[in-house]
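Re: beginner question about structure tokens

> Can someone show what the tokenized structure looks like for a real chain? I only ever see the sequence side.

Sure, here's an example I had lying around. Input first:
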Amino acid sequence: MKALARAGDAAQVADLFAELALSAPAAGAAAPSVLSYNTLLNALVEAGLAAEARGVFDGMLAAGVAPTASTFNILVKLYAWRTAEFHLAYDEIHGMRGHGVAPDVGTFSTLVTGLCRAGRLDEAWGVLDWMMQEGCLPMVHTYTPILHGYCRQGRIEEARKLMDFMEGAGCPPSIVTYNVLIKALCDDGRFDEVKEVLAEIKTKGPKPSAVTYNTYMDALSKAGMAEKAVELFEDMRCEGLKPTGFTLSIALNCFCVHSKFSEVIRLLERSTELNWCAAVVAYNTVMSRLCDMERWLAILELLADMIKKGIIPNTRTFNILIQSLCIRGKLSIAINLVFNHGIPANVVTYNTLIHWSYYHGRASDADSMFEYMKKVANVAPDEVTYTIMIDGLCRQGKFDEATDCFKESLKDRLSKDLLTPLINRLGRKERIRNIVVVFREIERQGFVRNYMIFEDTVRSFCTVGFRQHTKIFNLGFLLEGILGPGKEVYPAHNGRRKR
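And the corresponding structure tokens:
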């Protein structure tokens, strides 16, 4: 039951508990214990099943099983974390003594955490006073949520004062507490202060964790300070900490930013030495950067390297390769890999090939691939696919086919981002009949045409010259065809179908 609960499968936990409850009497075994009830109760709470959790607790009492402090802590978590019904959380704590159970530090810490997540920091301090009156001393995990709450609200100075208060109260911050502060400082770009905090950690005792360095490195990398981030990678190893997959992904990205691909290869080759299994995600990170740099040969070398190491490429790996080949003008090789060598393809793969086929003037290939993906590969087109196709068909002057393609896209939903460029294309060529067909199909499919669609449409007409006196008649005729005689624009409906 615990294993299933950890996997988040509350339904299976409930089934197993029911099986235990039914089979125990028949086998002469004891009925489910409080531990079994607590396991089920916690699984339901984690799944957000409040009514079911309450039912299990009531059933537990009816079965004569005495609840423990852990039982009530789970209920407090339900009301303070999941449902934010704090009055019920307080009721549970006040009712504990009626069952012969006293609140413990876990009870109060759970309530404090919920209050801090809800931004009720002053109330959380009140709970601290209450627990001390009850003779229960706060611990690090009681204070840390309050510090986290200050950081979320940007009150970093108050967070630092709280850490000083913890020291004075004989409850020094843990590395988890320091990590929360470091994350807040990094988010605020206060990197000099992060260095000070790291020095403070080393003098006061708690050892920095991989999370400490990962947080700092990631922030430096995103701030464009890749070289400093890489230096931290070596500092981390000097501290005796093993890099995690996330650490190495940051380092790989930093090397790629500065085009230090020799360092990238060396780092991937050192994966065994670093006790790190370089997975497909790491290779994809590097290959994506190489694609941006248009270095398709280097991508091929990396692909060969990962296959030699027994790392199985995924669809994203091949999509990066296909994109890099297309950028370098090697469309035929890319198409050959997909259609003749069984490279796994998804909608992104086909979108890439269709786009570059149109780009290189191979419209017939693009049209064929569009049909192939739908009818042979059974890959459903997405909005990107339809956008590429409609734009490509319009460029060829195939306005009827473009209109039909848009009508087909309505099977999924009405996309304003797809409609607007189509109307622009049709408007430039004065394809009034096609525009009327588009709007009539929108109405026929049951989509609501709101004022934003008409506003964008009229603006498109005016942009392409329909406001000129020689064409104003066409504009009036077009609007009448779209709206229909005596029709009004429907109110906004978020693009959902009528049912």
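Each token stands for a local structural state, so reading them left to right follows the chain. The two ends are 43 Å apart (CA to CA).
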